[in-house]
Amino acid sequence: MKKLLNTLFVTQSDVYLSLDGDNIVLLKEQEKLGRLPLHNLESIVSFGYTGASPALMGYCAKRNISLVFLKMNGQFLARVSGETKGNVTLRKAQYRISDDEIKSAKIARNFIIGKVYNSKWIIERMTRDYPMRIDVAKFKETSKQLSSLLIEIRECDDLERLRGLEGQAALSYNKLFNDMILQQKNDFYFYSRSRRPSLDNVNALLSFAYTLLAKDVAGALEGVGLDAYVGFLHRDRPGRVSLALDVMEELRGIYADKFVLSLINKKVINSNDFLKKENGAVIMSDEARKKFLTAWQSKKQEKITHPYLGEKIVWGLVPHAQALLLARYLRHDLDEYPQFLWK
Description:
By secondary structure, the protein is an alpha+beta fold. Helices cover 48% and strands 15% of the residues.
C-alpha cells in the first residue's frame, strides 16, 4: 500500500478492506497487513477484486471519503459515494472550464509543456547514452527546436495555436523516432504515425501502448471524481475519453514510447509476433499481446521519484498522482497544474 496526497492506494489484488472503529484495516487471508486512521484520508483506491466490508463502505460514504475500485490493470470499476452522488463541485468546475476556451487553453498549455519537455529529454538522454550509435548533432538540433517551441507554448493562450505548436513539436520528435530504434532495424522502423489501421510493426506497438495508457489515465481520473470524457485540449466527441487524452500527453513519450522502444531494443518482441492482413493492416498476435501485457505490468511496478511531490512511487501510480494534482488545481488548492516533468 502507498499513501499519497491523503489518498491510500492498495495495490495488492488479494487484500480485503475492513473497518475497526475509525480505522481502516487491511487483511490478507485473515492476517492483518496494516491499519490506518481514516480521519486524515480523502480517498481510498483499491486495485483488485477482493473487496471491502459494508461497514467500511458506509463509513466512507457518510464522511465523504471516496472509495474507488479498479481492476489490476487500472481500469475503473466503481466508486462508493454517499448522498452527494460523487464530487459534484469538482465536476461542475471541470465543465465550466471546458466550456471556456480561454480557460481551457491555460490548462491545456501545461499538458503540452509537459509533453514537449519530456520529448526533449528523451532526445537528450539518447545523446548521453548512445553517442556512438546516433547522429548526435541531429538530435541536438531537434532538442534546440523543442526548447524554442517551449518558449512559445508558455506564452500561448489560444487552443488552436497550442495545437499547432504541439503538432510542430510532435513532427520534430517523430523524425528522430526511427533513429532511436537500435536493434532489429530490418523489421522495426518508423517513418510516420499510422492509426486505424497500423501499417507497420512499430505503429501496432505504439497504438496498443497508447490504448493501455489511456485506460489507465481514464481510471485514475474517474477515481478522483473527474469526468474522463470532458477535456480541455481535446474537445467533446461521443465515446472519446478527452480528458484522459489530455493528461496522457505529458506521459505519452516517457511512459509509452520509451516502453515500446525497450521492447524492440531488448528483443522482447520480434517480427514473428505480428500478422499482416490483406488490407495492409499490421496486428499483434495473441502471444505478442501476452508478452506486451506482462512487460507492461512489470513496468508499472518500477519505482521512480515523482518530480513534483518528491516521493518514491511506482510508475503505475503516476496517472493517479497527476489526476489528484489536477483535481486539486480545479478545486483551487493549487495555483497551477503541476505537469509531470521527467529528466
